[in-house]
Structure prediction request, 260 residues.
Amino acid sequence: MKLVRVLNKEVQENKKNLFIYALTIALVLFVQEVGGAFFIRMTGGIQPAENGYLTNFIGFLFLGGFITTSIIFSDDMFSRIGQHNWLMLPASRLQKFLAKGLLTAIAYPIALAVLLTVVSIVVEAIALLFFGNPFIMFNPFTRHIGIMMLHYLVTQSIFLLGATYFRKTHFVKTVLSLGVIGILLAILSTIMVRIVFAPYFTGPFGFHFSIDSYVMYDHLTLVRVSKWIGSVIYWAILPAFCWYTAYLRVKEVQATDAIR
Prediction:
């Protein structure tokens, strides 16, 4: 299958960077866990009930994943040589786009979970052998990890879109754009709440909000419908819109490069 070949090409071209990134994660975990075990052993402190694998997983999943996604198209879309080589690649635009999108959206979190699991086994074995620490490895098969991966799958699509639209400093510009959009949505939400619950705002400027439980119960259906609409937008419409728009952007850039 041609898509599999394109996926393999992406991995082979970036295997050096991927190895350095994986090694960095492993060293961070090793220093953090083994260093912490050594410090506790020397000072006679109390061993914490939980280790830092979950926190590190969430940090590398979101921050690392967003940065990786933001730069995934930088060479192939916005550098003259890389753009030409990508255009000449014997694969459809959709296949080339999906290869990068699937690597950052699906393969990255799975590979990260596998990496942390393997590293945690080695690190915990060393800590147990030399410092007598309890063996507490990273467990990727928890509900919390699954939910985090689903949230990453949704939010990653925003940075995928930013990676195709911004020519430079993709990650920074995407974050700034999200900040501006967040402020506008907050203002819009405040206005909507002010309109819907206008009778319950008092004070000279209408800043004091007072409502009892009975009135809130009357608006319970509205709250539930709003929550349902928000869930549909977040879990379905947002990622679908970002992926489709990003693909259209890839088609546009490749068409422009072909003309040139």
